[in-house]
Amino acid sequence: MVSSLVVSVTFTLSKTFHLDITIWFPSEFSAIRVLDLSYNNFSGDIPASFGRFPQLKVLKLVSNLFSGIVPSFLGNLSALRNLELGYNPFKEGPLPWQLGNLSKLETLYLSNANLIGSIPDSIGNLVSLKNLDLSSNYLSGEIPKSISGLKNVEQIELFNNNLQGELPESLGNLTSLLRMDLGQNNLTGKLPHTIGSLCLTSLRLNENLFYGEIPSSLALNPNLRHLALFINNFTGKLPQHLGLNSDLEDFDVSNNELTGELPKHLCQRKKLQSLVIFNNKFSGTLPAQFGECHSLTVISMENNELSGEVPSSFWIHPGFETLKMQYNRFSGSISNSISNAKRLAKLQLQGNNFSGMLPIGICELDRLMKFDVSKNLLTGEVPACITRLKKLEFLRLQENMFTGPIPSNFSFWHELTELNLSYNQFSGTIPSQLSYLPDLTYLDLSMNSLTGNVPPELVNLELSEFNAYGNKLYGEVPYVFSNPVFLSGLRGNPGLCSPVIKEFPPCPKQRPYSLIAVIIFAACFLIFMGSVLWFLKRKFIFFNGKSYKPSYKTTNFQIVGFSEEDIVPFLTRENLIGSGSSGQVYKVNLKNGEFVAAKKLWGGTRKLDTESVFKSEIEILGRIRHANIVKLLFSCSADDDLMVLVYEYMEKGSLGDVLHVNKCEELREWSTRFNIAVGAAQGLAYLHHDCVPPILHRDVKSNNILLDQDFSPYVADFGLAKTLKHEEGGIGAMSRIAGSYGYIAPEYGYTLKVTEKGDVYSFGVVLMELITGKRPNDPSLGDNMDIVKWITETAFSSAEDHPIDVAHIIDPMLNLGICDYEEIENVLNVALLCTTSFPMNRPSMRRVVELLKEHKLARHN
Ligand SMILES: *[C@@H]1O[C@H](CO)[C@@H](O)[C@H](O)[C@H]1NC(C)=O
Ligand SMILES: *[C@@H]1O[C@H](CO)[C@@H](O)[C@H](O)[C@H]1NC(C)=O
Ligand SMILES: *[C@@H]1O[C@H](CO)[C@@H](O)[C@H](O)[C@H]1NC(C)=O
């Protein structure tokens, strides 16, 4: 005969296991003492045969699939010490009153057991009970007064039921009680005074309907460590001695109607870790004692009426992880000592009266994720080092009086999703580096004094909200901003204009009158000053033998036989041969009789752009050499804004001019056009595939392909070109939308991730120009048409089995031979490939060269 049996079975059956458990445990097992079948998938009723195990001391069926009711015969198992049936899908039913007969029961665990009805009075008979857990059921009714019979009870868990009524006074008799959780019920009334005579370490009455004052007797309990009274209707002051007599660790009275000052002693024992008092009406200042409470990790005191200066010692808490003080009336400055709160992840101070500067110590809070100081009276510049906070996700500085520029070195802000700087006095330009923030979703710069152009790079961001309303931005809105997310955010900047986006006034072709007046005046002034200087210079030479010379910075990229003196004085009207987006081009005759082209970059308001163009040209063109890329010979810049780039002179000018303006005779020959296509393709292929790192031109167009006297093509104008640097995140991460209307690949409408396939697209457009003789946005193409759409539609309108009908689209100016048609068709096919809307499907430039040449060979063999 088995006298004692411990069963602990773990079946690992994938299906619900229907077991007639009585077969396993027949009534002959009457001597069984411990039966533990927890954490299996037993289902059905709890077998009635269990009722015939009179010696059973432990019955554990936790977490099975028993689906009958909790049987009353369990009340017969008079030897039971542990009855643990929690986490079973029992049929809804009451807690059997018969269980009250289990006078030896120490643990009754029936959490999550679908119990309904009220707690039977008989519960009070469980004189041996230490642990009562009926949490997370549907128990209703009042807590029976008889509960005072649980003389030995240490823990009562009744949370998450529907219990009602007031707490019985008799609770005070439970002198062994250490932990009580009655949270998440509908309990009401005032807390009985007797609650103070309990030796509780943990009292949780959260989420009920209690009201009245929190009894001061609570503060006398020497064991109290955890107190949760949140979400009730408590009023009045907190007991002033709270924390004085016990090691208070967690304190949560949030969401009540408490008033008065915070008790001074809350952290008397230096054990307090979380102080949660938000959504009350506490007033007065922060007790100075809080400054020494280094155990604190969480403070949440938002939405109160606390006021006064925050003692500088308060900020020092090295363990702070969360500090929420928003929407109070705190004043004074935020002390630099906050730099000691190294673990701080959330710092929310918005809606107070904090003043002074943002302390530089902020920058040392490496873990900061959420930082909000909006709606205060903060002034001065935001410390630039704030961009070192690499965990930052939210930065909200709006509605202060911050001045100075927006910090711009964002290399560490990888996580930032929201940046709100609105309603301040930030000045300077919008840093284009914002486009490097990979996760930025909300960007609000509205109502500041920002100036300059809209950085086109911003299009690179995948923003849900962009707002730069009410600034002083000016200049042309980049074409790619047609996305409504951006457009609407650019309103309220009267200086913005656009030739294409209807929302904005067109950009003035002529400078406004007043500006002209200013320029004329400035010019006169300069001439006057110039003559004075000249005069002085002459005098100096006369008297001192020394000559005045502005300081030029020059670089030679080739061995050249000239210097700035041979160039700068000749940048005059009569030598002007062209004018482009980046500057004016002059033809300069050198002493040796040769010509060079000198480009003088625009100065003045366009200076920022100009500098980057200048740098870009020098950095890129200065180091590459290719037969189809224009040669930069020399650069020179002077203090006074002058920036000059000197190139080989290209006799025939740009392809754009030759093709569309001059209608040059030589271009009647298809072979001339074809050679230009192949040469330019080779130049671009060299940039993409032979340069390390690769270079993207980003402004490929017929105007940027120059022709020498033999009509050999040279890719020029690298002002927008970029080197693809891999440390910047591979292909797309660097970006600046570039290019000219009509040549920009469609994907730049929704992204600014720039790849070489953007150049391929633009080159395809150039091929189409060569074939048709039309400009990419030629008015003859009709409204809303560009050359790519037009060709695609015209070419494919012919029957499917028929080869593309090119005759309609070929430039009528061309003198064509029989073989030319076939070659034009081939080039057209390449052009169509290059302008496929899906970038992936476009060939590489190297492949384009191959495709073009293959055919050429075929023709000549
Ligand atoms: C119980 O059943 C569930 C669902 O079928 C299954 O995921 C789990 O592994 C089973 N547990 C045991 C102990 O067999
Ligand atoms: C169980 O308790 C009730 C009173 O609560 C009593 O009348 C009854 O006799 C008890 N039964 C047993 C078997 O002890
Ligand atoms: C930024 O702050 C302003 C002013 O407080 C507010 O109106 C706006 O909604 C905020 N922007 C975002 C994106 O949250």
UniProtKB/TrEMBL annotation:
Annotated binding of ATP, by residue: 600
Pfam family, one: LRR_8
Record's keyword terms, sorted: ATP-binding, Cell membrane, Glycoprotein, Kinase, Leucine-rich repeat, Membrane, Nucleotide-binding, Phosphoprotein, Receptor, Repeat, Serine/threonine-protein kinase, Signal, Transferase, Transmembrane, Transmembrane helix
Predominant place of localization: membrane
GO cellular component: plasma membrane
GO molecular function, a single term: protein serine/threonine kinase activity
E.C. number: 2.7.11.1
PROSITE patterns documented for this protein: LRR, PROTEIN_KINASE_ATP, PROTEIN_KINASE_DOM, PROTEIN_KINASE_ST
Protein name, UniProt field: non-specific serine/threonine protein kinase
